[in-house]
């Protein structure tokens, strides 16, 4: 299971900036204005030794009226679902009265807390954290979220307190693990019941029927699988029951533990913003993916064309995934679903030979050269496999940090077509070798030095 880290503190102490740093994204809106963040924001990151889930929250202002009351409720929910809390304070402003009030609330929760003194760039680290010892929450850590100073040691220190994520014997015997995710009432439980051939899960025409992740082992054509049903993820504004507050965390953790993800969409409702967000989380997790359009039966031809058009327009980044049109209730198209799952899983764990990868790279470079960088041609020399699930292709060369995103997509598509890596994301990592002659001056011989002096005298006469 992924560790969950919540970011709490007063307004404008840098929580959203740290969230973007930890997730290597720009998902959280950042501006020099208090109270910008109001809802909880979830993201998956791996800045440290292992992946984790980080939760951004709104600032606790101490106000007890208006929207601040709802914001405080969101913060409390984030603390309750977290395994560790980063309590951010402003190293430049020093200890404020509101900081002590928040510290008192955090002590009551019993959660592990790390006091993070942000905005400590250009300050002495000991002086920046000195007065925050008075809150009694342990040794404060000085960082600069905007510049990244001290962030990686901070996250590594916290992640080392969690047990290592090892596969249990039960998971090893579970075979291919398939996570079924989607919004509420799109037919996830009905689909699992159809696949296993019995009413194993409660399926009801009301959103929120499934409350937890349910693991259902089954066999298909002699192979062992485990289907994982998840609670439907709704927009946070529509969550009224406290028991639903863990749905996003559970879904992210379930995707991380799975081998293949079935993203179930409702053909009658089309592709929503929440569907696109879930799809983005699946791609970010690197898991193999099959897109399932449920409730396809009964749609007119123009409605089917509308759904297909929405898929191309709103989810273009899922072009690598196979799309299945089914009816879980009546069984239409469900029989072909496991073939797509097997194909996606095989692609995600493919063994790619170094010689074949290098040959494809040479062909791609020969047909379309990388652009010039700083007046010099980027050279890509050879490639090898760096990991599975998802396949990671490591390319060595020089000036690889200057390879544009468009050329990276070009290489990714070439590798995908050559090795038939459909159904799984493909990640490309570039590495630049060290120049052994960097910093070394070429020592001239005596004859070369004499020739150089003659040339300089000639140039001066001219």
Question: Any overview of this molecule?
Answer:
With 462 residues, the protein is an alpha/beta fold. The chain has 3 domains: 4-159, Rossmann fold, CATH 3.40.50.300; 169-348, 3-Layer(aba) Sandwich (Rossmann fold), CATH 3.40.50.300; 349-462, 2-Layer Sandwich (GMP Synthetase, Chain A, domain 3), CATH 3.30.300. It is 35% helix and 21% strand. A 6-stranded mixed sheet has the order 2-3-1-4-5-6, sandwiched between helices. The protein has a 6-stranded mixed sheet with strand order 8-9-7-10-11-12, sandwiched between helices. It has a 3-stranded mixed sheet with strand order 15-16-17. It starts with a strand and ends with a helix. Residues 432-462 are annotated as: Disordered. GO terms for molecular function: GTP binding; ribosome binding. GTPase that plays an essential role in the late steps of ribosome biogenesis.
List keywords for this structure.
462 residues; alpha/beta; Rossmann fold; GMP Synthetase, Chain A, domain 3; 6-stranded mixed beta sheet; 14 helices; flat; repeat; Small_GTP-bd; P-loop_NTPase; nucleotide-binding; KH_dom-like_a/b
């Amino acid at each position: 299971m992924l560790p969950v880290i919540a970011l709490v503190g007063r307004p404008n102490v840098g929580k959203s900036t740290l969230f973007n740093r930890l997730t290597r994204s720009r998902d959280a809106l950042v501006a020099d204005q208090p109270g910008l963040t109001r809802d909880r924001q979830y993201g998956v990151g791996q800045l440290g030794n292992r992946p984790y889930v980080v939760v951004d929250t709104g600032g606790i202002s101490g106000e007890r009226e208006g929207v601040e009351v709802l914001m405080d409720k969101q913060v409390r929910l984030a603390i309750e679902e977290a395994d560790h809390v980063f309590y951010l304070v402003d190293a430049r402003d020093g200890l404020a009265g509101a900081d002590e009030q928040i510290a008192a609330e955090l002590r009551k929760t019993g959660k592990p807390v790390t006091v993070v003194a942000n905005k400590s760039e250009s300050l002495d680290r000991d002086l920046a954290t000195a007065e925050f010892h008075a809150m009694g929450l342990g040794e404060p850590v000085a960082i600069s979220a905007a510049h990244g100073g001290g962030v990686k040691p901070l996250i590594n220190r916290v992640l080392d307190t969690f047990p290592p994520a090892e596969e249990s014997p039960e998971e090893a015997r579970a075979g291919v693990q398939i996570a079924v995710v989607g919004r509420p009432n799109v037919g996830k439980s009905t689909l699992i019941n159809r696949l296993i051939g019995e009413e194993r899960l409660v399926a009801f025409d009301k959103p929120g029927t499934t409350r937890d992740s349910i693991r259902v082992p089954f066999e298909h054509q002699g192979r062992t699988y485990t289907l994982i049903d998840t609670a439907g993820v709704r927009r946070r504004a529509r969550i009224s029951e406290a028991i639903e507050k863990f749905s996003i965390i559970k879904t992210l953790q379930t995707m991380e533990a799975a081998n293949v993800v079935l993203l179930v969409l409702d053909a009658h409702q089309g592709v929503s913003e929440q569907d696109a967000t879930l799809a983005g989380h699946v791609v970010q997790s690197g898991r193999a993916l099959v897109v399932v359009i449920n409730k396809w039966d009964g749609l007119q031809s123009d409605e089917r064309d509308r759904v297909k058009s929405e898929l191309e327009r709103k989810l273009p980044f899922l072009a690598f995934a196979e799309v299945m049109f089914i009816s879980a209730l009546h069984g239409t198209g469900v029989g072909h679903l496991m073939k797509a799952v097997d194909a996606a899983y095989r692609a995600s764990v493919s063994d790619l030979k170094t010689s074949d990868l290098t040959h494809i790279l040479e062909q791609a470079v020969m047909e379309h050269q990388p652009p010039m960088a700083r007046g010099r041609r980027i050279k890509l020399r050879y490639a090898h496999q760096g990991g599975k699930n998802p396949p990671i292709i490591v390319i060595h060369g020089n000036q690889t940090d200057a390879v544009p995103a468009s050329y990276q997509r070009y290489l990714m598509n070439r590798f995908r077509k050559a090795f038939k890596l459909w159904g799984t994301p493909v990640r490309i990592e570039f590495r630049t070798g060290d120049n052994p002659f960097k910093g070394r001056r070429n020592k001239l011989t005596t004859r070369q030095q004499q020739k150089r002096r003659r040339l300089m005298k000639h140039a001066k006469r001219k």
